[in-house]
Amino acid sequence: MERGVPIRSISRCMSVLQAINRHGSLSLMEIAQAAKVPYPTACRIVQTLLHEGFIEREPDRKRYRPTVLVLSLANGFQVHDRLIQASRRYIVDLTYKHNWPLSVVTRVGQSMVVRDSTHALTSRTFSNYYPGFTLPILECASGRAYIAHAGAEERETILNGVRTLPGATDPQTLTLFESDVVLNEIRRDGYATKGRNFHNATPGRTASIAVPIFDEDELVGALTMVFFASAMKMSEAVERYVPDMKAAAERIGLDLASGMHRIAA
């Protein structure tokens, strides 16, 4: 097999499982659409996941939801526990101050994964995004902030991965992030934005801003605020929230470096 070429059946199975885990409950047609796989393929994958126990059919409805067994896929993945402990009080404080939910997000492959969020603490949200929710790395503010601040080698690894996954991101977006112009702008400003979020539970209805989080010199994730796209212009949101977000990210980094999160825990 050619090096670097993924096994499509496995990629499709992962896409289906991620789609069901992301949305919580989907019909077969919705699964096919969300995972971007043919309907017959979605049916076969769903039957396999049912057999393996990772999903279940809802009683009296032709809809499918994840089971507790999906948590087994995360066994042993504790590398970001320190980040969650160090950041929790800061994202809670910012949510109470500005009323918009915040998330701590980290990179896994060519995706950004929610590790913690405050969506449950405010009414200014369309959906609750629990740990494990994934987003394509170039289609979200957190991913854009992350890739801009990553080292050259890691950034090239990410972009190479995106290139090998057809449909993972808009080709024009990929071209932009292959250029130093956009990356330099994000690094200069210290934040990234996404005017309309389409890879979430409410496509097109929210916008987001993200700033990077460092543990000393190591890039460990991003801090993201999500707000209603109709509520304000992005320039206004940047002016209102970015200073507080940068300050919170800096304090999280300092706590990580000093180990203060252990005391708080």
Automatic annotation (TrEMBL):
Spans through the membrane: none
A Pfam family matched in the record: IclR_C
SMART domains xref list: HTH_ICLR
UniProt cross-references to InterPro entries, sorted A to Z: GAF-like_dom_sf, HTH_MetabolicPath_Reg, Tscrpt_reg_IclR_C, Tscrpt_reg_IclR_N, WH-like_DNA-bd_sf, WH_DNA-bd_sf
One GO BP: negative regulation of DNA-templated transcription
Assigned keywords, A-Z: DNA-binding, Transcription, Transcription regulation
UniProt key word Transcription regulation: yes
Domain IclR-ED positions: 69-258
GO molecular function ontology, one term from the record: DNA binding
All residue ranges annotated as the HTH iclR-type domain in the record: 7-68
Protein name per the record: IclR family transcriptional regulator
